[in-house]
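User: Here's a chain of 233 residues. Predict its fold as tokens.
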Amino acid sequence: MSKLTKNQKIVLEKYDSAKLYNMSEACKLVKDLTYTKFDASVELAVRLGVDPRKANQMVRGVVTLPHGTGKQTRVLVLCTPDKETEAKEAGADYVGLDEYIDKIKGGWTDIDVIICTPSVMPKVGPIGRILGPRGLMPNPKTGTVTMDIAAAVKEVKAGKIDFKVDKTGIVHVAIGKVSFTPEQIYANALELLNTILKLKPQALKGTYIKSISLCSTMSPGINIDVKTFSAAE
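Assistant: Prediction complete.
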């Protein structure tokens, strides 16, 4: 068995892996359990009682975190020339069409979100096999295929993110940074959880939210008492 580091020993003194914490406690504790030299991400994992293989139990949505993600989101807007000025003024990092489609075909995906207008979707479709697995494919349901380019860019820059349940039934989302205050982490976590609650599939029988865990990039997962979350809301 490998030897525990000094920081790992400190973490074990502050943290009980068998305990269920309330959300407020967890948002404070996650800061105390993180010893990275960089500003680590804070992540929320929610295990749902859905069967993602069934279309009527798929959980997917968008949420605007009140305090953002703490991450600089790189936005590419694919549009016709008449929309380029609007996109640039709204804060898009990259704006264009054919040249960026060619770059993506060549392997470039150094972006976080792609927004496009409906008219260019026929050109975007062929690169879907590249964008899809990376979660970059524009989709009208998430507001990334729209004529209102300016509003879409501003929302993404302000902290709007899309999420969906994975094949194991877990929604896993970065909701901030360790440098955030506990109150900011708490507000972001509740916004995400409330959004997930609203998306409960009508076809689901049984428990919807089975477990919730909060962690940072390098910390252990803090198990949250689902009942205290439900009661608080």
